[in-house]
Amino acid sequence: MNIGIIGAGPIGTTLSQHLFNTGHDVKIADARSIKKLEGKDFKGKAVTFEEVIQNIDVLIISLPFHVVPTIKEKLSQLDDNTIIVDTTNYYPFRDGNIQPIEDGKVESVWIAEQIEKPVIKAFNNLLARTLQTITSADGSKMAMAISGDNQSHKDVIAEMINAIGIDVVDNGDLNNSWRHQPGSPAYCTELNKSQLERALQLADKAAAPIHRDEVMNHFRPDMQHKDIVAMNRKVYDADTL
Ligand SMILES: NC(=O)c1ccc[n+]([C@@H]2O[C@H](COP(=O)([O-])OP(=O)(O)OC[C@H]3O[C@@H](n4cnc5c(N)ncnc54)[C@H](OP(=O)(O)O)[C@@H]3O)[C@@H](O)[C@H]2O)c1
């Protein structure tokens, strides 16, 4: 497929590598300037924003949550048949307080409303480091949750994810995607498929933001990846899945 990625952070660059290596035609853009891509470790072609949305089957948006509304006008040239994937997560310390989200609006529903286009939520519930190594905490095959309202679009994205060696759990429509938002047992806890299915069922919408902030309070920049995953599993109640 022809795939465009907007955002060259750890998730965007890691995805560019996996998707290039699994045979896709990949191009990647920064939302501000092509110059921002210099020195970054991605695969595929570095292009401008205007170019990245041309002639693609899938557009992956991988930006800080609060930045997404700023690209709405630029996305108006996007073909209506293009599948849009939203990888974002809301963190108030980084994104500022966004009142509708604080009041319980589902994060990717807000994103879809902001850009006035449907999205599939995927790649939000694995840490970038997990996505690089693709092994779960117990060594079994890693699984990822996806949500969205268009089943044929979800099937395309699920096939793309399977090809890079990750199992997929279809979590239903976009409105249900709060089950894999930050603070939930499914969020960045490195689960296999059956564990992830249970985690999605156990999600508690009211508790998740509290658990998310608890993890951020304990986070230290010098933590090892395995310690971050262990902390997530403990605080998000994923240890016994
Ligand atoms: N990191 C993870 O483990 C992880 C896991 C799952 C989901 N996510 C979510 O996926 C999204 C991408 O995360 P990420 O960690 O890969 O990268 P990120 O730090 O959110 O940055 C993504 C891209 O956005 C650019 N950017 C930063 N500030 C910007 C601004 N004000 N305007 C326009 N572009 C800006 C970054 O450029 P610079 O590099 O120049 O700053 C980078 O190209 C986020 O919503 C995040 O919550 C992250």
From TrEMBL:
<dbReference type="GO" id="GO:0016491">
    <property type="term" value="F:oxidoreductase activity"/>
</dbReference>
<keyword id="KW-0560">Oxidoreductase</keyword>
<dbReference type="InterPro" id="IPR051267">
    <property type="entry name" value="STEAP_metalloreductase"/>
</dbReference>
<dbReference type="InterPro" id="IPR028939">
    <property type="entry name" value="P5C_Rdtase_cat_N"/>
</dbReference>
<feature type="domain" description="Pyrroline-5-carboxylate reductase catalytic N-terminal">
    <location>
        <begin position="3"/>
        <end position="90"/>
    </location>
</feature>
<protein>
    <submittedName>
        <fullName>3-hydroxyisobutyrate dehydrogenase</fullName>
    </submittedName>
</protein>
<dbReference type="Pfam" id="PF03807">
    <property type="entry name" value="F420_oxidored"/>
</dbReference>
<dbReference type="InterPro" id="IPR036291">
    <property type="entry name" value="NAD(P)-bd_dom_sf"/>
</dbReference>
